[in-house]
User: Fold Nucleoside deaminase from Streptomyces hyaluromycini.
Amino acid sequence: MRPTRRSLLGLLGTAGLGPSVPGVVAPHSTPAAVGSAADGGAAHARFMSLAIEEAHRNARYPFGAVFVHSGRVLGRGVNASAENPSYHGEMVAMTDYVRRAGNHGWAATTLYSTAEPCAMCMSACVWAGVGQVVWGTSIEELGRTGLVQIAIPAAEVARAASPFYSPELLGGVLAGTTDALFRRAQLLRTDRTGGAP
Ligand SMILES: [Zn+2]
Assistant:
């Protein structure tokens, strides 16, 4: 599934990156594997569906994430920031991965997240050295659904770490579905203060 043009342009605009191969934001690597819908597209959609499945466990804050290694899901998580402010879906999934697979193999893992990782989560990916990061809804779009956000695109975090980190990044995967998820969540939160994910 290719990213929507709108989400891609939004991402590029925010990140200040120039035009690239559609669907791919790869600050410091050749825009190769991740974005070619012909090969990776179906797999990306399949694993993003699993992240969406996780997201359904928190209807108000549907930030779901999975870590995939060699075609296997080795980490799952959903936002649990009500329990601990650092428990974003990606962080919970990362912890789950370590528990199941140990603290290694990161370069060969792909993180699938229903939303573009925030600066905290993307920084965690930097420190781990996660090879690929794939998301659905952009940070910009999250803002439009009433969620306060740190306005630093994932690509910018990766770029700032470029001397030692060169991930493949892809936004907008199944964004039609994830955007709808966050819009629904906004309705569910109507009587509540928005708050961070
Ligand atoms: Zn986060």
